[in-house]
């Protein structure tokens, strides 16, 4: 009995569960119908959008296939080959242009070097120079007495100047400030003072900017380390004041000239004396040299300019001035410019014994009626391998720096412009690049005390030189 009851209960339980489950499924089906409709709607939308995308992609694919079908394999190979050849051609053209440009630069540089060595290089820049604005000219003051000489370092960052106060000052070009100073000593302190104790008349700097040489009226030549102004050693041998110094370009060979009428050759690296050259009949007032193993000198009252061929142990003598020749500078290896107390500026060629060009009364006259005398030309400078020259006058009436343009073949001198300064222009130097000119000015002439201009200021005038166009080069 119980067995059947249990069975009935067991069989009844599933019935109840089925009923409840059935109710649940019914509810589920009701909700499921709504969800299924939404699901079907979303699916239809997705399918339609995908079909549209597929349709677009299909159209694009068909178009691409059509384009690909239009180009045959042979045509594709031909097109790629043409593109490759065009690319190669462009690369080769660029390479050829670069090589041609480089070879052109090299050829131009070699030609310039050859012309420079021959002494035939003349850069035409004088016509492009513009007179400077007086407000742009700077005055550097620091010496107590007249400035007698100056040099510009090869990198154009510094200027060395020397004076009758026996001192040497190193100036910064950009700021105009003193970088270093070698103080001068009093007469009689030669044994304990490191430096000069007499008027310094000349100085030179090596082409690599390593050594600075200075010469004074005590017959001494002192060698300094240009970077630090450290004293290295001194050369003794001249029997009178040392009036001219110059380093041979590219070497440390030093040439010196003196009032003892001799020229000496020194090797600064080895601290050694090499030889002495004789020939002038009066005191030597100036000396210069470039790259060749030769130098040029001005002979003062013997009125001669001499070219000394060191290796050949010979000399060339030139005449042309009517008075004392006080200054000389090389323009290139075969041409030079000189000035004297006769008021003349002369251009010389080593191939002619007389000046190829001469300007009388280059800086005018002074004196009363019937007593006129030319103003002395106390300094000259040349921008190397160019047609630009500067001269400085000494006198109370016409103290000025005059710039000149050399004619073709260095024949003829044409005035460019004048820069008035007060005092004796004792030294002039162009920077290597020609961007500026430096004038050393004092109240007295560097070689004596014939006059004194009290209103003059002892110092350096830095004169900027501006150009209008690019420079040109010609072979003379």
Describe, in plain words, how this protein is organized in 3D.
With 476 residues, the protein is an alpha+beta fold. It is built from 2 helices and 34 strands. The strands form 10 sheets. A 4-stranded antiparallel β-sheet has the order 3-32-31-30, with no helix packed on it. A 4-stranded antiparallel β-sheet has the order 4-5-6-7, with no helix packed on it. The longest helix is centred in the N-terminal third of the chain and has 69 residues, at 2-70. It is globular, with a radius of gyration of 45 Å. The protein starts with a helix and ends with a strand. The model is unreliable at 1-33, 49-55 and 470-476 (pLDDT under 50).
Mean pLDDT level: 83
Share of helix, binned:
10-25%
The percent range for strand residues is 35-45%
The count of helical stretches stands at: 2
Q: What general outline do the C-alpha atoms trace?
A: globular
Q: In angstroms, what separates the terminal alpha carbons?
A: 147 Å
Going across the biggest sheet, name each strand in turn. 3-32-31-30
Structural class: alpha+beta
Radius of gyration: 45 Å
What is shown here, in short?
With 476 residues, the protein is of the alpha+beta class. It is built from 2 helices and 34 strands.
Write the layout of secondary structure elements.
Blueprint: H1 2-70, H2 73-118, E1 121-124, E2 129-130, E3 138-140, E4 147-152, E5 158-163, E6 168-172, E7 178-182, E8 200-205, E9 211-216, E10 221-225, E11 230-235, E12 242-247, E13 253-258, E14 262-267, E15 272-278, E16 286-288, E17 294-298, E18 304-309, E19 314-319, E20 325-332, E21 335-340, E22 345-349, E23 357-359, E24 365-366, E25 373-374, E26 376-382, E27 388-394, E28 400-406, E29 413-420, E30 424-430, E31 436-442, E32 459-464, E33 466-467, E34 472-475
């Amino acid at each position: 009995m119980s067995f059947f009851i249990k069975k009935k209960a067991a069989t009844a339980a599933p019935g109840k569960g089925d009923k409840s489950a059935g109710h649940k499924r019914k509810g589920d089906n009701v909700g499921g119908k709504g969800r299924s409709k939404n699901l079907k709607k979303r699916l239809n939308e997705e399918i339609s959008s995908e079909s549209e995308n597929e349709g677009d992609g299909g159209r694009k694919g068909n178009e691409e296939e059509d384009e690909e079908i239009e180009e045959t394999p042979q045509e594709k190979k031909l097109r790629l080959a043409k593109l490759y050849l065009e690319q190669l051609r462009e690369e080769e053209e660029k390479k050829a242009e670069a090589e041609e440009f480089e070879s052109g630069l090299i050829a131009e540089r070699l030609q310039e070097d050859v012309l420079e060595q021959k002494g035939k290089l003349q850069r035409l820049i004088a016509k492009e120079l513009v007179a400077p604005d007086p407000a742009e000219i700077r005055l550097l003051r620091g010496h107590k007495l007249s400035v007698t000489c100056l040099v510009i370092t090869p990198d154009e960052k510094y200027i060395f100047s020397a004076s009758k106060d026996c001192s040497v000052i190193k100036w910064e070009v950009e700021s105009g400030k003193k970088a270093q100073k070698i103080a001068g000593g009093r007469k009689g302190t030669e044994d304990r003072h490191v430096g000069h104790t007499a008027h310094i008349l000349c100085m030179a700097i090596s082409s690599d900017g390593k050594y600075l040489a200075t010469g004074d009226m005590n017959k001494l030549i002192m060698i300094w380390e240009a970077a630090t102004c450290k004293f290295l050693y001194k050369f003794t041998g001249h029997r009178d004041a040392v009036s001219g110094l110059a380093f041979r370009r590219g070497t440390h060979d030093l040439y010196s000239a003196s009032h003892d009428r001799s020229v000496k050759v020194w090797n600064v690296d080895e601290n050694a004396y090499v030889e002495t050259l004789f020939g002038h009949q009066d005191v030597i007032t100036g000396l210069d040299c470039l790259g060749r193993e030769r130098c040029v000198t001005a002979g003062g009252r013997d009125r001669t300019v001499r070219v000394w061929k060191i290796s050949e142990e010979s000399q060339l003598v030139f005449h042309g001035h009517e008075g004392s020749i006080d200054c000389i500078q090389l323009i290139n290896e075969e041409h030079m410019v000189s000035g004297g107390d006769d008021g003349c500026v002369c251009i010389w060629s080593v191939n002619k014994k007389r000046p190829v060009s001469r300007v009388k009364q280059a800086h005018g006259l002074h004196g009363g009626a019937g007593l006129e005398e030319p103003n002395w030309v106390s300094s000259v400078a040349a921008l190397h391998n160019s047609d630009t020259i500067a001269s400085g006058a000494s006198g109370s009436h016409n103290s000025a720096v005059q710039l000149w343009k050399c004619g073709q073949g260095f024949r003829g001198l044409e005035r460019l412009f004048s820069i008035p300064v007060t005092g004796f222009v004792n030294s002039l130097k162009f920077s290597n690049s020609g961007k500026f000119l430096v004038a050393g000015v004092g109240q007295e002439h560097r070689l004596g005390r014939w006059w004194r201009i009290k209103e003059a200021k002892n110092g350096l005038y830095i004169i900027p030189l501006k150009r209008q166009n690019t420079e040109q080069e010609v072979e003379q």
